[in-house]
Every structure is written in C-alpha cells, then in structure tokens.
Please model this.
Amino acid sequence: MSKLVGSIKEAIRLAGLRDGMTVSFHHHLRNGDYVLNAVMEQIASLGIKDLTVNASSLFDTHMPLIGHIKNGVVTKLLTNYVSAGIGRAISEGVMEKPVSFRTHGRRPADIALGNTPIDVAFIAAPTADKEGNCTGKEGRSACGSLGYAYADAEYAEKVVVITDNLADTPPASPSIEGKHVDYVVAVDAIGDPRGIVSGTTRITRDPVGLVMAASAAKVIKASGLLKDGFAFQTGAGGASLAAAKFLKEIMLKEGIRGSFGLGGITSYMVEMLRAGCFEELLDVQCFDLDAVASIKEDPRHKEISATRYASPLAKDAAVGGLDVVILGATEIDTSFNVNVHTDSNGYIMGGSGGHSDTANGAKLSMIIAPTFRARLPIVTDRVTCISTPGRDIDVLVTQSGIAVNPMRSELRERLVDAGLPVMDIEELKARTERITGVPKKIRRGERVVAEVIGRDGELLDVIYNVPER
Amino acid sequence: MIRSLLFFPGNNPNMLINASALLSDALIFDLEDAVSPAEKDAARILVRNTLRYMDHGSAETVVRINSVDTAYWRSDVQAIIPERPSMLLLPKVGSASDVRELECEMARVEAECGMEVGSVGIIALIETALGVENAFQIATSSPRVRALFLGAEDLTADLRCKRTKEGREIEYSRQRLVVAARAAGIDVYDTPFTDVNDDEGIIKDAMLARALGFSGKAAISPRHVGAINDAFSPDEAEIEYAFEVIEAIERAKAEGKGAIALRGKMIDAPIVARAERTIEMARALGLGRRKA
Model:
C-alpha cells in the first residue's frame, strides 16, 4: 500500500488524530518553516481541539499558533526554545496550562521514556522518497542535519513526512528511515530558504564584544584543556563566534589538533574543520548555508541525532565529551545560575536549547556576557529564571573581569597564574552597580506560565506571567 | 608605561562607560576634534564626570583639551584639572610658549583646588610644520611635558601633501620627533593608523613606529589596541636574550673580565642598557622569562 497521500489534511485524517492528542514538529527550518503552520491550519479546519504541541523550538514565523491557542485547538505546549513574539504571548498568559520547557537533550529522553508520548509526528523533509526515507542535505529547502526529528520519527505512534522534493529513489544515506514513516505528503514548499538560515550571526565588530572574546580564548588556553583531542562547542552569538576565531588562531599557531566540534554548526566551525582544528564536526543542526553545504559534501562533517547530541539516556552523548563550551546569558547570579529564558522585563524570549546540556556535559562551561546591557547589570543576586543551574557553570567572562565558580578553585588558580583579571562574582557585581545602580526588581504576576525542566528531568524553575502595566 | 593611547569622543557616553575594558594603556578623552562647537559644554561635563566616577584601573587618563588659540581651552582646564587626570594632551603646539601658557593656567587651577602644583603632566601634540621644527624646544619647555605626540593628519595638511598609508611623507617628522623627545629624555607617541578595517596595516605601521624609536602609538579604533600593545611589548625571544645578556655580564664581572661575547657578539654598554630596559618592561607587563 502506498504511503503517498494527496494532502496534509488527508494524512491527518489517516493518522487518526483526535481531540486531546499530541502532535510534534522539529525546527530545522527555523524561521523559514511553513510546515507547522500548514499542519495546524488543517488540524483547526478539521475541528480537532485540545491538542498538545511538542515542538523542538518555535520561531516568530509560527505566530499563527497563538491563534490556535486562543481558539482551543492547542491547549498545551512542550518546547525547548521560543523566540520573542511567541514568548511575549506566553508571558501575557495566553495559555491556561504552563508551557513546559525542556533542553535539547531532555526532549528525546522524555519521548523515549514515554513521559511525553507523541501521537502524530509531522516531519518537514527537504528531500524524501515515497517510503519516507528523508534527508535534509538535498533539495531546494535543504537545511542540513535533521537531528532533532529522529526521536519523533522513532517513537511517535504515527509519522507523517512532508516534503517539497519527492525523490524517485531513496537518499544515499537517509537521516530518517522509511521504516518509521506512515505517510508521505508532497507539497509545493516546506519553507523559505532565507528564513532557514536565520541562525546566521556575524562575528561581532563591537569592541567590547571583541575584548570579551579575546579574554575567553585566553581562559581556554590557560585552563589546560586546549591540547590535541580538544572538543569544543560555541554558541552562535557574535562574541562567542569571535572567541572561536581567536581560539582558531591559537590552535593553528600552536599546532593543536582537536577531536570534534559540536552543536548547532555555523560557517565558523566549518572553517575550523577545514583549517585542521578538528577531526570532525558533529552536527545536530545547521545554522547557515555554509554548514548545509559542508554536511552534504564533507564526510568529516557528520549528522547526529538530538539523543546522540545530549540525551541523558545516551551512553555516548556527545556533550559528555566536550572540553569547552562557550555560552551566553541574559542574566547570571552570584551562585552562577544562568537565565536564557526571559528578558529584562520578564518576558520569555528564548529557552535552554542545548545550553544546560552542554554546560552539564563540558569540562569547562564558560558564559560570555558584558557586565551590563543598555543600563542594566547582568550579574544579579538571583536570576529571574534558572535556565541552567550554577553548579554546571564554571566561569563568567566579561569585559571588566573574569569570575570563577568557587567550586572550581583549581581553575581559578590557573587563570590567576596566567595573569588574567580574576575576581569574585560579588566584586564584579559591585563594580557594575557602582556604574548602573541597582535596578528595582521587575513586578511579576502570580500565575505560572511556564516550567523549566533541566537535563536530568528536575524542575529547575517556573516563570510567572508579566502583568499588564 | 604607555604603549597604546586610545581616543574616546568626549560626548559619547556609551564608549566612555567601557573605556577601561578596551585594554589600552592610556585613555584619551577628547574635547577637541571629535566634539562639535555646540557639544563642547556637554562633553566637558561628561568627561569630568567620567574621571570623577569611573574606575579606570591601571590605565593612564589623558584629556585632549582644545588648543590655546580657541575660546574653550581655559574652561577645559578649569573643569578637568580638579579630577586629577594623568595628563592633558595639548593639540596644535607650535612653540614652547603654547606649553607655557597652558602650564600657567594648570598651575593656577591646581593651586586653587589644593593640588600639588605640577602633578598633572602634559603631552604636546605636534601637528604643524612649525611644531615639528620646534620639537626640541617644546619637549624641554616645561618639566610637565612627559611626551611628544605626532599628529599626522593635520600635519600633512599643513605640509600640503597627501597622507598615505605607507607614510613616506611623515618620515622626516617621525624621526625628528623621536630625536627631539629622546634628547629631552621624554617619551614619544606615534600618530594613529586611520584605516579601521586594515588589520594587517595596523600591525605593519605599529612595528614601523617601534622600529623608529617611538614609545607607543595612538589609536582611534579599539580594534587597533591589541596590535599596538603587541608591537610595543618585548617578545619571548627578546626577553630571553635580555636575561642572557645580564647573566653574561654578571659572569664576566665575577670572572674579572672586562668584555664578554654572547652568541658571537661583543656585549657593550648600550646592549646592556637595552637589555635592562627590556627586562624592566617585561616585568611591568607581567611577562616572565620562558621556562626552560
């Protein structure tokens, strides 16, 4: 019997989707994704209500979802990251049930454990054959890795593949195999390629950002971890990328050959691979077109699943092999807890993604952040939301100094010996507050609008609504 | 010790607030060319408050005031001196009398607010043909003058030649200033490199300035500070050689020898003096001898 069906609506019907069930989506097409909106529109038109949406991440292109929430089509959200538009609606209390935030590693673990079962997974595939063998490496909507969709394909009751490039023959090495797939739908377009590369960030030109980045590279060098076999991940923020550039210069100068670069992969990591800084790249997600081209052509650039990336259940989780990860923060407190969920007004504008996973796994987890943004200090007594617990953060690099987690006294000594400007985090906070003053605490509402679940499944924190002002 | 001097427009709070993070040995808060006439008051207040409230760590603070032929300079001195900057940078210095005029005013304000007279230094910015010709007189015009500073943009306009990246047109002026400053026993700083996007160019230009004998170099972009600091810091090989020179000399003394060779070259007094300066500089920068 053919898996090919004529429309998304037909696939939804055949998959037996009913009120109260759970549907899932991956976010490899990022802000260019058409599939989530197209599917939800058809679900709504069929009159199905009270659904749970489990989406690995949500972007502002998915704003129509807020309409489906208001209409009762969707009543529960599970996700790892939301961008600011979706986040604002959540913070304003659009949902009755709190949104459940996980990490990129916790999501596949909870799917595998049956904690968050999926009834129907909808998988956007840049190329698929009629059996549903998929790859993200080919097709006009190519997005490279499909790492976040593996668990959905493997564990969902029904799997629907949606593609805009139906191939006659299976891809040479499919990311997701047809054995998991129930239905295949061909559509005109699964996404806008310009939005697919929305993860692209340029190396910062901001002088303060460059100072922090240079300092970060010195910390890595002084840590003693930078030697042959070095494994590294960096965020896609401007200062993190600049740190990677400085690190690359050190590695090339000293002839250090690392083992692997991990993560969401950018062109800068591809450059490091090509320059000989790493043996391989392990890629759960491509952030730009250079990365997409590289994963297609370079056998050293390998696609991995979210499970292999970071699941706490995986015995080979790549984050566990990391030497260093460079991460960002909207706030960090004197216990080194980091917030990447909410902005300075308390609105949700992000999520952990792989932040907590990599911080938990890496030998050295570094936060790069300026001591203040606009006029607001970044170091606080207690973050608005604990996204990543302080026990997993080793060092904070700012433009004004470097603070080491007191639990890492040996690291502190190494940095002091290297002549780096190490100071207590309280001192860093006090120095900043001498310039900025101490801002009044933002007023939060009484309703919990989101819960934040850590890599090991514990409830790390809750996020309250932002009241109208 | 000043290797790098970074300019900050005196009317830009966003830049002033992070000044000390940018790793420049000296911070120059500019009240002159970067500030339009309508903004002079605001900039003066902002720079005064920056000096008063911000912690600049180990960086030297320098304020470029307006030149003595303007209506602004006395107000600049009046506002800035009480905040105890390390030095004032006086632009368009043509002769020793320009410095003396400033010196009198500085002394008056220092006395007025109970400061030790002479505690704030002067850097003389030489950016006219007349200034170049009078460089030694300017350098020796006052004990407050700690350094000469070449400003090539205005100078080349005065010389009626084109300012080029290679800098052939300022070769004479550079060398004249180095000689004048060294003869007077003070420091000398090179003109900024103005192409903020030329990462190779700044390295070359800073290396050239060091080779000519400059003490340091100014920057208009924070991105140039690293290259300047690197160019004016002794590298590992230089530090190692300096230590070897000192060891060789000490060995010679112990053995009662008058002269000694190192790596096939006679060690004489100038080489020893240079080695001592290198070691002193390395210590000041926290650079150690490479571990054997």
In short: Chain A touches chain B through 13 residues (CB under 8 Å). Chain A has 15 helices and 26 strands.
